[in-house]
């Protein structure tokens, strides 16, 4: 049988072989990814399986590493903004805001109040779009084919709204150092006002049709329990931490922009399981609508960009600043160190997904393969953000 | 002409009719499934090829036929290609004893029900072979799931079918249908509601349809046991799935829903209508529910369906015996 002789190269690469060496006798080493339907892109997880039970799981990163932090060193601050829209395609405006905010803080630029409200409105709309994307894809992971179509139907409306001021539909680079690129037009404001009651009427339907379905509840309840302690050790933030009962939200705990003036709740859940994280995200969409509603009321007239806003060749004055915003997946942080040169000397981006994914190895141990997919999905991973 | 026995002629015509109808049903079901899925998901479904996209399945079939047949390195060549054939061929036999109308039966034998149950058991073998021979870890996991699931769900299916044939006193589907009347309250579903429920749930498990489609759970196992199949290798599994659906729905119609009986319209029309209604139900279920987890799937079977089916069978046997004395 000559055809069986040359399959040594199928034994796997360094990671697989390294994993196989320490695996128990008779266990199966399985590579989930980098091409796999439920890893949402190019995450690779090596798992050691005993039957369908996961003995060990280890995420392997770097398949989508694009050197964003290095690119920041060879571009001026204004030129780097488009990169931020591509770090996390789910919540691009959150990343826009984190970087722009850090530069503004380092340079001491005061943003006009109208621009702050425009940022809040667009960022929260983007958060809804991101949660809808997660919701649809997560249910697809759990084998429900239809909800994603409804989620994308709604998300489409959000993208249509955001298309008007930002000029793009997914990888926005809308915020500028000292404000935003374009004011919200009357058409845009009208469509946002029309969207709010419409989406509010959809949420109960999603609850009745999907959340209350017994098959779904059995799939996500008591699966992937993350203790508060583990969340703190791994630095988990966002809905993952709030789903474990940690009441931490950057908008409330480290207030920025006009969020302190707005009245909204931080949904948390004591369930600690995938259901907890699911509930938190569903409730957050409701709160996003509240925030947008108030921001529309309170938004003053005025400039949307500070007078004498920085030009592309503008140099960030020497100094350093850290600025964090609440992204759809957790705390997005940007740390910039400038030596006063043409480019920012060093930029460090804190991706929430990276910390949240680190929990996976610990949480998935002892679960079955189907649960691992349910846990992975409940962490809401966007791989480009994790690899950066 | 006298040299050819009438019996042989009957069987040949029956086989040709069955083979043609399986192919046709496959094409129609692909279209129905995609169209229904489309409308459930607020999109039109296929609409480019032909009116309302009715010719879309033909194009799909042509595409599948034209694709390269690919076999992974290290796969067992004989078993690998045997599996899809083994999945499809027994299905043709399953159609033979189905009573479409009064006297419209390709093969009128006393053990029709037994034939169906026996040959549908072969499907497990094809799943196992496909998963094992393709030298793929996902395939292997899918095959293991498939075997555990099919073996488990065959038992309550068998028991629920048996309780109906106890009442009818026959394993011939035509006889079972004749024992039922024109109106819904004369059907076996009224006397055996529990058996019908058990049969329906088991049918989903037996045909690997969502929410019980674990052997091919694409979010976990990419495509499960048929991960490595391309072109018509995959096409045969696909066709077998739809043909199996038709068989379980047709058996359900004959056993529980009065078969060809019905007012006004001719018998075969009623039969087809009832089967179509059940098929639509299966399609709706697939596009509505999430997938259950594997341990939950087996728990439903061993903890609920099996004890209930046994109890139902014993009770039925008791009452049948009682009726004989009375």
Detailed description of the structure:
By secondary structure, chain A is mainly α. In chain A, 49% of the residues lie in helices and 12% in strands. In chain A, strand 6 and strand 7 form a beta hairpin. With 326 residues, chain B is mostly helical. Chain B is globular and about 65 Å long. At the A-B interface, helix 5, helix 6, helix 8 and helix 14 of A face helix 6, helix 10, helix 12 and helix 13 of B.
According to DSSP, the number of beta strands of chain B is 0
For the largest beta-sheet of chain B, the strand count, sense and barrel status come to:
none
Shape of chain A: globular
Mean pLDDT of chain B: 83
- The assembly state of the depicted protein chains is heterodimer
What fold name goes in the CATH topology slot of chain A?
Answer: Cytochrome-c3 Hydrogenase, chain B
Mean pLDDT of chain A: 86
Globally, the shape of chain B reads: globular
N-end to C-end Cα span of chain A: 46 Å
Contiguous helical run count of chain B: 13
Class by alpha and beta content of chain B: mainly alpha
Structural class, judged by helices and strands of chain A?
mainly alpha
Radius of gyration of chain B: 20 Å
